[in-house]
Amino acid sequence: MAPVGKSLILLGILIAAVGLAVWGLSSVPYVGRLPGDFYLRRGNFTLYFPLTTCILISIALSAIFALMRRW
């Protein structure tokens, strides 16, 4: 049972870290409102798809993981 407990603790820490990162990024002025982020509003329907923001986050995470792999 010990490995399962350690895994759950690490998962909880990871979820908390992601939550803090999302909370911190919400105060950055242009995150989520870049050119290429789609916002469609028709009557009672609203669709928001942050395509450019997702691509930039993906590039940043890929670079971080590539650096971690070499280290």
Set down the secondary structure blueprint.
Elements: H1 2-25, E1 37-42, E2 45-50, H2 51-70
Antiparallel strand pairs: 1-2
What structural keywords apply?
71 residues, 2 domains, 2 helices, extended
Account of the protein in words:
With 71 residues, the protein is of the alpha+beta class. The chain has 2 domains: 1-29; 31-71. The protein is 62% helix and 17% strand. It has helices spanning 2-25, 51-70, and strands spanning 37-42, 45-50. A two-stranded antiparallel sheet has the order 1-2. A hairpin with a 2-residue loop joins β1 and β2 (45-50). The longest helix is centred in the N-terminal third of the chain and has 24 residues, at 2-25. It is extended, with a radius of gyration of 17 Å. The model has no long low-confidence stretch (mean pLDDT 86).
Distance between the termini: 31 Å
- Number of DSSP helices? 2
Q: What is the average per-residue confidence, as pLDDT, rounded to a whole number?
A: 86
Binned strand content: 15-25%
- Molecular shape: extended
Structural class designation: alpha+beta
Oligomer status: single chain
Q: Identify the strand order in the major beta sheet.
A: 1-2
Global Rg: 17 Å
Helix content: 55-70%
The biggest beta sheet is recorded as: 2 strands, antiparallel
Number of domains: 2
Topology, number of strands:
2
